[in-house]
Amino acid sequence: MEVINTPVSPYIQNAPIAYCAATLESIYVDPGDEIEKLMNVSSELNLKPQYIFITHGHIDHAGGATELARELDLEIIGPHLDDKFLLDALEIQGQMYGMKAKNFIPAKWLNHKDSISFGNQKLEILLCPGHTPGHIVAVNHEAKKVIGGDVLFNGSIGRTDLPQGNHQDLIDSIKSNMLTLDDDYDVYCGHGPNTTIGHERATNPFLVDA
User: Fold this and answer.
1) How many CB atoms lie within 10 A of CB 210?
2) What predicted TM-score, i.e. pTM, was given to this entire model?
3) Is it true that the peptide bond before 133 is cis, omega within 30 degrees of 0?
4) What is the structure's pLDDT at 97?
5) How many CB atoms lie within 10 A of CB 61?
6) For the segment 62-94, what is each residue's pLDDT rounded down to a tens digit?
7) How many domains does the chain divide into?
8) Using CA atoms, how far apart are residues 89 and 70, in angstroms rounded to an integer?
9) Residue 82's closest CA among 111, 51, 61?
10) Packing angle, helices 65-72 and 35-44, rounded to 10
């Protein structure tokens, strides 16, 4: 599995495109804004989009999903049902933060330990509440790559001061779901540079007791 991070929105949110090198089948992840930019990246690589995957319901990650789904006739899957209150308020979020968005209900909610696939790639879904209650991450164990959204960052962790955020839940999610992975797993973060599990285990100031 290959992953390309493309920053979008005023919040410089990484909107990954993950693809199977053998088949060129791909998925859009967290298309929060600037969908033309994302479609151009996909077209340049001759990718074959299969669906849109959402890690959580904040507007910088989900705001462009409806437009992209309509443009390319794709289904939206994820996040977990516990983020429905955020998807139901995307238009309100857009008015607050100066971004265009449409509320939506995904074709499928995802649960802990579900699996999703595209091409020859299989990803395990892990429920990681804390930044939002329904935040999920996707792990490709064969490629040792994690699509991590806003759970774990390079040198930091996701915010927990937004509605229904919970700091202890986030720390518990990281410890039980991400720090159980090997050190050489790459993490594609929702903001900022990529990192590895080993780097964060050794240096992240929020995880010194983990």
Assistant:
1) 12
2) 0.97
3) no
4) 85
5) 30
6) 999 999 999 999 999 999 999 999 999 999 999
7) 1
8) 19
9) 111
10) 50
Positions of E strands within the chain: 2-4, 7-8, 13-14, 17-19, 25-29, 48-53, 75-77, 115-118, 121-127, 136-140, 145-149, 152-153, 156-157, 186-189, 195-196
Tell me what pLDDT residue 210 has.
61
pLDDT of residue 42: 98
Q: In this structure, what is the dihedral angle of CA atoms 150, 41, 100, 166, given to the nearest 10 degrees?
A: 0
Q: Which residue is it, tokens 């005023």?
A: 10
Q: Which domain holds residue 12?
A: 2-207
Tell me which residue of 135, 182, 181 sits closest to 157, measured CA to CA: 135
Query: Closest by alpha carbon to 170, among 122, 204, 123?
Result: 204
What are the b/e assignments for 144-181, b being 16+ CB within 10 Å?
bbbbbbbbbbbeebbbbeeebbeeebbbebbeebbbeb
Name the residue type at position 203. Answer: T
Identify the segments of the chain with pLDDT beneath 50.
Answer: none
Length of the chain in terms of residues written: 210
pLDDT at 100: 87
**Cα–Cα distance for residue pair 178/175, rounded to 1 Å:** 6
Two tokens, residue 132: 């939002």
> Residue 136 sits in a domain of what CATH number?
3.60.15.10
* 158: CB partners within 8 A, 6+ apart: 130, 131, 135, 149, 150, 151, 152, 165, 170, 190
